[in-house]
Write a structure and sequence with these properties.
single chain, alpha/beta, Rossmann fold, 2 domains, seven-stranded mixed beta sheet, six-stranded mixed beta sheet, 16% strand, binds glutamic acid
Length: 418
């Protein structure tokens, strides 16, 4: 994983898209370059009295279509190239869902699992102080991502408001509902993915009530995906994993109870401790004989090495960047229906956008309103990608690129950038 540079993957994906759309070299050059990047050092007092200096980034990739938007990750392996790639994918994601937003992403190199609540709060506030002048409700609006939570969003919003000298709820999304968060935001990424899976199953003729599922990763996206796929469709979970390992259920007919797995993870830190399961490796999980595979953790887990062995009929990418371009080609040739990341996981940013709208209006929608609007957006985006993939005879990721990039290019041209 460590030797795969996600920003190089982005460059390859853009080149391929430029070829399909016949884009000129100037446009392609802009699309391949982040608009603005911030590298910051964050001095944080640790509980033992020592001072640590953390490294952080905020990359604003392209704002042709509007205010930039994208989460902040707290991850020990964070690199600026990963943040660049994720910021590019946010640009395509917002465009594909037809949101009036550009793309950005933030990251801090740290291991939240080894930090106390107080240390995390001080780090979160230090990050906001460092990027204060470059974010804002009308400039760039962060959100949660890997290992960042509504609680962290609340601290960040508070720090920004203190510096601004007035409440600024709209500076960040994914906040707790009682301080300006949107109902339906906490499971929005997974729920949006469910709408895409529902449409994908129809298009390939898969009966979801009999479908079997493996979920890779058990954070916010993975847990809610496992819960919702069984709740909404009656599909059966056969295997789960997290960073500590993977488990498979011994009796396939019974399946795994997603709630029990969640509680086990809360109590013991890993789904691996769930009683009555057979331990397997994370690689075995990806290659398991299931109908639907849901990568819901980090990037570059499906590569040319394991792609030939993947048996799932649908891969629903809730993670960002889980599949390398080489693996994409193999999966396409093998007839695997991939719902690409910036389509499949766009529910998160879509409800974040709803949160921004509600904050601007100082109004709040019901959970039903949020879900209906999300369903409408995800369903429309899925079908536009599917139709494009059939029309151009290209894989679903390239089709998503075509639809997303052409709108960004149109905005750049209308604004006179090229
Ligand atoms: N971090 C999420 C993503 O990758 C959500 C971004 C947002 O809500 O702005 O899409």
């Amino acid at each position: 994983m460590a030797d795969i540079n996600p920003f190089e993957i982005v460059q390859k994906q853009i080149d391929k898209c430029a070829e399909i759309l016949n884009l000129n070299a100037d446009i392609t050059r802009i699309l391949k370059t982040p608009m603005r990047e911030l590298h910051v050092s964050l001095p944080v007092r640790m509980d033992d009295g020592s001072l640590k200096v953390f490294q952080g980034f905020r990359v604003q990739y392209n704002d042709a279509k509007g205010i930039t938007k994208g989460g902040i990750r707290f991850h020990p392996d964070e690199t600026v190239d990963t943040v660049r790639a994720l910021a590019a994918w946010m640009t395509w994601k917002c465009s594909l869902l037809d949101l009036p937003l550009g793309g950005a992403k933030g990251g801090v190199v740290c291991n939240p699992k080894e930090m106390s609540v107080g240390e995390l709060e001080r780090l979160s506030r230090a990050y906001v102080r460092a990027v204060f002048q470059f974010i804002g409700p009308e400039r760039d609006v962060p959100a949660p991502d890997v290992y960042t939570t509504p609680e962290i969003m609340a601290w960040m919003m508070d720090e920004y408001s203190v510096i601004a000298g007035k409440p600024q709820f709209g500076v960040i999304t994914g906040k707790p509902v009682s301080i300006g968060g949107s109902k339906g935001r906490s499971d929005a990424t997974a729920r949006g993915g469910m709408y895409a899976i529902r449409e994908a199953a129809k298009s390939i003729g898969l009966d979801l009530s009999k479908a079997t599922v493996a979920v890779e990763g058990y954070g916010n996206a993975g847990y809610h995906a496992a819960r919702l796929i069984s709740e909404l469709f009656g599909a059966r979970i056969l295997a789960l994993c997290d960073s500590k390992g993977a488990v498979c259920c011994k009796v396939a007919e019974e399946g795994i109870d997603p709630q029990a797995a969640y509680e086990c993870k809360l109590a013991t830190t890993s789904v691996c401790n769930l009683p009555g399961m057979e331990p397997i490796s994370n690689d075995e999980l990806l290659e398991l004989d299931v109908d639907i595979l849901i990568p819901a953790a980090i990037e570059s887990v499906i590569t040319e090495k394991n792609a030939p062995n993947i048996k799932a009929r649908i891969i629903a990418e809730l993670a960002n960047g889980p599949t390398t371009p080489e693996a994409d080609d193999i999966l396409y040739n093998n007839g695997v229906h991939v719902i690409p990341d910036f389509l499949c996981n766009a529910g998160g940013v879509t409800v974040s956008y709803f949160e921004m709208v509600q904050n601007f209006y100082m109004y709040s929608w019901t959970e039903t309103e949020v879900r209906e609007r999300l369903d409408e957006k995800m369903t429309a985006a899925y079908h536009s990608v599917l139709n494009t993939s059939r029309e151009y005879k290209i894989n679903m990721r390239q089709a998503a690129y075509v639809r997303a990039v052409e709108r960004v290019v149109e905005a750049m041209e209308l604004r006179g950038w090229v």
